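Quick review question:
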């Protein structure tokens, strides 16, 4: 596969604190129900029901403060936690729309926190990782994180990743009957994908997929027999303006297979074509 020049952009992030200057200070203090409008920096009201909530978990108070300020200026409601034990209680009691987790924290690290959250929720999760710690990135993705971003990072990049993840998220309808397929549902033999309810079943049994896993599987299942390379799956899951490397897609595929094999040990519908990509085959 030819090198994709888009990935070079991902390694050229401005330093973490440099991006703070790119968010001008508001002309007056923002209240919890206000954000900055595009016209002259004048705060504009944001209806409470439309405000998206971010859980930010990090033991570095400087990061909590600076990132919270940037996210609040973009109209998000931010709940901060300084360790995993505190976060698991708060997130369980008041689930956010997206959680941003640092990996290395005292008392309970980000990996253990993600494990506990995944027992009860498919909440979209972005990991904050060390600059060169590829092992953390791979483990995080295998454990069910939707994305990761390396420190030091551009706050603008983080905000774009959050918005992209929210755009990808299809809210499921609690208590919806799993047997019925809605408009836009994809049925491929034993597989049912219903984007409107973020519902995936195999042989009638539900598979709990993250947003990213769902979109990758949907992209493959929409055209069974057709090969999708990693760039195409990247675009389907992350959008054209988010850049991840090949091992991120591979980790999501491995996790998808593991979840579906847990429902059916003979599941082998996702094929690897070495040097080309992946394809979905009907039985």
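Suggested answer, residue by residue:
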């Amino acid at each position: 596969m030819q090198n994709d020049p888009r990935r070079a952009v991902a390694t050229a992030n401005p330093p973490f604190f440099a991006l703070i200057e790119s968010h001008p200070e508001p002309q007056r203090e923002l209240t919890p129900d206000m954000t900055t409008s595009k016209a002259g920096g004048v705060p504009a009201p944001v209806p409470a029901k439309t405000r998206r909530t971010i859980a930010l978990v990090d033991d570095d108070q400087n990061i909590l403060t600076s990132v919270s300020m940037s996210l609040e200026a973009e109209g998000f409601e931010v709940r901060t936690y300084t360790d995993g034990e505190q976060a698991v209680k708060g997130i369980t009691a008041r689930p956010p729309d997206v959680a941003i987790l640092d990996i290395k924290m005292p008392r309970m690290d980000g990996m253990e926190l993600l494990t506990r959250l995944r027992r009860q929720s498919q909440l979209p999760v972005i990991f904050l990782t060390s600059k060169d710690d590829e092992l953390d990135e791979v483990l995080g993705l295998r454990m069910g994180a939707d994305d990761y971003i390396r420190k030091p990072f551009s706050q603008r990049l983080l905000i774009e990743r959050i918005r992209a993840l929210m755009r990808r998220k299809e809210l499921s309808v609690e208590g919806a009957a799993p047997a019925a397929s809605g408009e836009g549902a994809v049925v491929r033999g034993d597989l049912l994908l219903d984007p409107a309810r973020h519902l995936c079943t195999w042989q009638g049994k539900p598979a709990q997929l993250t947003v990213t896993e769902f979109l990758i599987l949907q992209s493959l299942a929409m055209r069974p027999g057709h090969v999708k390379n990693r760039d195409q799956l990247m675009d389907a899951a992350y959008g054209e303006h988010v850049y991840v490397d090949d091992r991120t897609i591979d980790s999501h595929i491995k996790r998808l297979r593991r979840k579906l094999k847990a429902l059916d040990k003979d599941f082998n519908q996702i094929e690897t074509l070495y040097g080309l990509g992946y394809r979905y085959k009907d039985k």
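Why it works: The chain has two domains: 7-168, 186-280. The longest strand covers residues 53-57.
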